[in-house]
Design brief:
The complex is a heterotetramer of chains A (358), B (150), C (158) and D (378). Chain B has 150 residues and is an alpha/beta fold. Chain B has a single domain, classed as Beta Polymerase, domain 2. In chain B, 24% of the residues lie in helices and 25% in strands. Chain B is globular, with a radius of gyration of 16 Å. Chain D has a 3-stranded antiparallel sheet with strand order 1-2-3. A 3-stranded antiparallel sheet of chain D has the order 6-7-8. The chains are: A mainly alpha (358), B alpha/beta (150), C alpha+beta (158), D mainly alpha (378).
């Protein structure tokens, strides 16, 4: 059976055979960096195209359909355009921070890739506090956004950045609680263990209704955290033109744009890992034949399939709902999501202690 | 109120008023000084003219005429109040404390005809550039660059 | 009771959102509903109404004859000065002088397609054509002469 | 207009005590055209809104002074371009009133049907654009799908999709397209089946409701004092439908309700427009099968001369009361012409209703006022 695990072990064995261990590690690092950067670029292209196609079909349009078959290369052409465009820096902007901000946002996305299990035993860094690492690093992206908003010296940008700050800080909470429910159920912060714990069923099925509630809360919270509609107040096209990246153009804008999609991918990947068993195939009770067939689908396909399903869900939200107002956004968090998630966590703790889950 | 009743009522408020019934509605011509008290009385008195639906100015080459179209949402009677102004120095008191809609309409008349409204809270140009010279809707306005004579 | 209100709030809110998602989901899964018209590709099948006011044209028949008498009614009717009729005097074989058009200059860039000239024309010499692809690189190309070179007025039109 | 340095100067003066002054427009995604609002903010809360107009001022009133009574009608299509047909109708009505031109019944019926179609088209566009202002992009396309059917009908019959110029003094420019009735009926069926979509996507949506309910409240007294008309005033409970109060054409022969709401907030304004679309459908349904046969244009003189005097007519456009005021000296062109545009008065209320709200509320208020900038600037 095709497996990415075999490839990685083969590569490592070969490197260790040829070079000394330090050298081998360095080369592995370079390979990982190259792979993650190309994954970034690829994801950006695919997700932007997907967003446009999903939006178009929801809006009874065709979407991009001229560049390449079915408009496949539209985003490639767009990227080329963005690279060639002049990157303007406003006269009175804080040049250093202005240039730094997109890279900070980008870097956060890169760091978050590390603990994600893309397939069986295919993980950059299986850190034992994986969940904690993710929730702490992901809150860093607000710094990049605040930086961009402040350094642009533009009032729209400033307003957008401030909104974004308030939003990300508050929605961290319920996202954290939603993640914690799974940690409580599993008893581990390590992502590989969380995945392994779902061998006999995904948490969303095993954890009864509290897990479903936690999943809904998680999706809402991460939609807000990635500044997606209906929580796209930081950009709020009709109010703040483009929010914190009003003044950005060319490649710097492209980085923000890319980072937004990478962030969506990452939060959806984490959601898939926590609630849908990551690369675990779908197993149902003792249907031996069915489970066997499911096992034949490569684990990476399972992972990507689940992740893209969640991404589709988030896109579906975006193209259906109107935007919230900034006070309603915070009300939603503090009056609804947070109490519900606290109560839900309590419920899950009781379930976990009494062993009521499957 | 019928036109006859109005004709008896108005002179108690504005003695110099003259009437003209040729058009669709009763036209009342008053002097610029009498206008403001008359308007207040029309709005708050027994006529209850609470709806100013058109405020404009007409340039008759010899003089300017302010035209106020009034109506009431209760009894739906419309009257027209007019006041002649001196073309060289057109000054009239504002009515925008009586009808809020007059604020913008008077600003428009101010820049298009040069009528100065005393006591207007914010008499600035609304549509034209701040340094625009001349009053475009007056008949003698000439703009050789932008106006094309057919 | 507070709790009950709270829960009904959440439930009604979520159902209203789900209803919206069902609608958009329906359109996502029904590509037949797509209404996009792929314009330059569908040029062959693109049907414009025959009344569509695209530009003023002067129909000529097979003998290169039109029905314009040069009465300048269209020129007078036009609010924008779009049409300019240049007349000349033709001498008929019997030696009678007759007014006829030399050129009928039509400036598309000034035209607002108000149709007043067509209504004004007493001899139906001009009409609106459903052409809409008017863009050119040079504005002077929009000034057109409507009567074809060498054309003359049809017999019997006064 | 204000030039760049002046804007900066203004900003520093106004924003002295911790206030933020932002120039919303003339290029801004939510101002639908070239409306320029100078918004003074305290954090997210709006302190003051000051509209700067004139970016699309064409001085139509001055222009009309040099056009004859036949010619000037077409210019009015360019004012409120979404209800161009109704604007034309207002002008034609004035000339017919002034010159006592008899209009055939057929023309009257067709004019009313087209006016109501125009009203639906305008409200459809507004619905989509307002949902877009509030961040929902999808209803825009659904609304435009229905609007497209109307523009197709207009194209068939009038020859243009937006600025029809189908009305001439005395009647219509030409007769109906043979397919007109069939197409209008097809549209009515389609509209009725799709109108529930807006309810699912917009009206009943909890986010939309919380964005618009209680936002931008306009009391009935203020609505009258500010001269608001149309759906804006009717949402505050002010009965001001010209079609009911001063019926013109055949509006006194058809049955329809004047839609009134009492809340006066953005949601009420939204509901008024949505319900008005249904009333327009009702009017069209009553008339579409009963268009009398006969002439489509009455007898008029070749050169129109309005008698000396003053004339005023008003019609109900999609945005409110549109008034035409003509002072005639007896010649072939008007001496002075004044258009009372509904958008101008509706805009003046913006500062009143949006102050104290947030930027998001401004979008809701502005969206439901349904401003068309050429209508304001003229």
């Amino acid at each position: 059976m095709f497996s990415l695990e075999g490839i990685t072990t083969n590569v490592q064995d070969w490197l260790l055979m040829k070079f000394n261990p330090t050298m081998a590690l360095t080369i592995e690092c370079v390979i990982v960096i190259l792979l993650s950067i190309s994954l970034f670029a690829l994801l950006g292209l695919v997700l932007v195209l997907m967003e446009r196609k999903v939006a178009a079909h929801i809006q009874i349009r065709l979407g991009p359909n001229r560049v390449g078959p079915g408009g496949m290369f539209q985003t490639v052409a767009d990227t080329l355009k963005l690279i060639m465009k002049e990157g303007l820096v406003p006269d009175k902007a804080d040049k250093f921070l202005f240039n730094l901000a997109p890279f900070v946002v980008m870097m956060v996305g890169m760091l978050l890739l590390a603990p994600i299990a893309f397939a069986k035993n295919f993980q950059i860094w299986d850190i034992n506090i994986g969940v904690l690492y993710i929730s702490s690093v992901s809150s860093l992206s607000v710094i990049g956004i605040l930086m961009a908003g402040w350094a642009s010296n533009n009032k729209y940008s400033l307003l957008g950045a401030m909104r974004s700050g308030a939003q990300i800080v508050s929605y961290e909470l319920s996202a954290g609680f939603a993640v914690l429910t799974i940690v409580v159920l599993t008893g581990s912060l390590q992502l590989s263990e969380i995945v392994n714990a779902q061998q006999n069923g995904w948490w969303i099925f095993k954890g009864h209704i509290p897990a479903v509630i936690a999943f809904v809360l998680y999706i809402i919270a991460v939609t807000a955290e990635t500044n997606r509609a209906p929580f796209d107040l930081a950009e709020a096209e009709s109010e703040l033109t483009a929010g914190f990246h009003t003044e950005y153009s060319g490649m710097r804008f492209a980085l923000f744009f890319l980072a937004e999609y990478i962030n969506i991918f990452i939060v959806c990947a984490i959601g898939a890992t926590l609630f849908f068993g990551g690369w675990m195939p779908l197993h149902i009770g003792n249907w031996e034949a069915f489970n066997h067939i499911m096992d034949y689908i490569p684990s990476s396909v399972w992972f990507m399939g689940k992740t893209f399903f969640l991404i589709f869900l988030i896109m579906w939200f975006r193209w259906t709902f109107p935007r919230l107002r900034v006070d309603q956004l915070l009300n939603l968090e503090w009056k609804y999501l947070l109490p519900i998630s606290l109560f839900n966590l309590l419920l899950v703790a009781v379930i976990a202690i009494l062993g009521w889950h499957f | 109120m019928t036109n006859e009743e109005i004709k008896e009522y108005i002179p108690t408020l504005a003695p110099a008023a003259t009437f003209d019934e040729t058009g669709e509605w009763l036209n009342i011509m008053v002097t610029a000084e009498e206008l403001k008290p008359l308007m207040s009385a029309l709005r708050n008195g027994k006529m209850q003219m609470n709806y100013l639906f058109c405020l404009t100015c007409v340039d008759f080459k010899t003089h300017l005429t302010m035209v106020y179209h009034l109506s009431a949402t209760t009894h739906r009677q419309s009257i027209v109040i007019k006041a002649n102004l001196n073309r060289e120095q057109p000054v009239i008191e504002t009515v925008c404390d009586i009808w809020r809609t007059a604020e913008f309409l008077e600003r428009e008349v101010f820049e298009m005809f040069g009528v100065h409204f005393t006591n207007h809270p914010d008499l600035r140009k609304l549509i034209l550039e701040d340094d625009f010279k001349g009053y475009p809707l007056r008949k003698d306005f000439e703009d050789p660059i932008n106006m094309i004579k057919l | 009771m507070f709790l009950k209100e709270y829960i009904t709030d959440v439930v009604t809110g979520v159902t209203s959102l789900l209803k919206g998602m069902r609608k958009t989901g329906y359109y996502f899964t029904h590509p037949k509903e797509i209404i996009t018209e792929q314009y330059p590709d569908n040029r062959a099948t693109l049907l414009l109404s025959d009344r569509f006011k695209g530009e003023v044209v002067m129909p000529h028949d097979a003998n290169n004859e039109h029905t314009c008498t040069g009465c300048t009614a269209c020129e007078l009717a036009c609010p924008n000065g779009t049409i300019k009729v240049v007349t000349k005097f033709e001498t008929s074989p019997e030696g009678k002088k007759k007014k006829a058009i030399d050129t009928l200059v039509y400036r598309l860039e000034l035209c607002t397609m108000c149709n007043l000239c067509i209504v004004a024309c007493p001899s139906d010499a001009i009409k609106m054509a459903p052409n809409f692809e008017h863009s050119v690189f040079d504005r002077t190309k929009l000034t057109k002469v409507l009567n074809q070179p060498g054309s003359k007025i049809r017999e019997g039109i006064e | 207009m204000y030039n760049q340095t002046e804007i900066i100067k203004d900003t520093s003066e106004l924003g002295a005590d911790g206030e933020l002054v932002i120039n919303m427009g003339p290029q801004h995604p939510a101002t639908h055209g070239v409306l320029h609002l100078v918004v003074t903010l305290n954090g997210e809360t709006i302190k003051k809104i000051e509209p700067h107009l004139g970016y699309i001022h064409r001085s139509i009133e001055k222009m009309c002074e040099s056009l004859t009574y036949r010619q000037f009608i077409y210019v009015t299509s360019r004012m409120d371009y979404l209800s161009s047909h109704i604007n034309n109708l207002g002008c034609a009505l004035l000339i017919e009133k002034g010159m006592q031109i008899e209009v055939p019944d057929r023309a009257k019926y067709i004019r009313v049907i087209l006016s109501e179609l125009t009203r639906i088209a305008s409200h459809e566009l507004w619905l989509g654009a307002m949902a877009m202002d509030l961040g929902a992009f999808t209803p825009f396309f659904y609304a435009f799908r229905e609007r497209e059917m109307i523009t197709d009908i207009m194209e068939d019959t009038c020859g243009a999709r937006l600025t029809m110029n189908y009305i001439v003094p005395g009647g219509l420019m030409y007769d109906l397209h043979p397919d007109f009735q069939k197409k209008v009926k097809a549209f009515i069926t389609q509209f009725k089946s799709k109108v529930t979509e807006y309810e699912d996507l917009v009206t009943n949506n909890i986010i939309f409701q919380s964005r618009t309910k209680g936002v931008g409240i306009l009391s009935a007294e203020d609505a009258i004092s500010y001269g608001c008309t149309g759906p804006v005033a009717r949402a505050s409970g002010v009965s001001c439908d010209i079609r009911k109060i001063y019926p013109y054409e055949v509006y006194d022969k058809v049955e329809f309700d004047e839609v009134l709401e009492t809340a006066g907030d953005s949601f009420a304004r939204y509901m008024v427009r949505v319900k008005e679309m249904n009333q327009s459908i009702r009017i069209i349904e009553q008339l579409i099968d009963n268009i009398p046969e006969g002439d489509f244009v009455g007898k008029t003189k070749n050169v129109l001369k309005l008698p000396k005097g003053e004339f005023y007519t008003r019609v109900e456009t999609a945005r409110g009361e549109f008034g035409v005021y003509i002072v005639s000296e007896g010649g072939t062109t008007p001496h002075r012409i004044k258009f009372r545009s509904p958008g101008f008065s509706n805009l003046s209320v913006l500062n009143h209703i949006a102050v104290g709200g947030m930027i998001g509320d401004l979008m809701a208020s502005m969206g439901t006022l349904d401003l068309v900038i050429p209508d304001i600037d003229r």
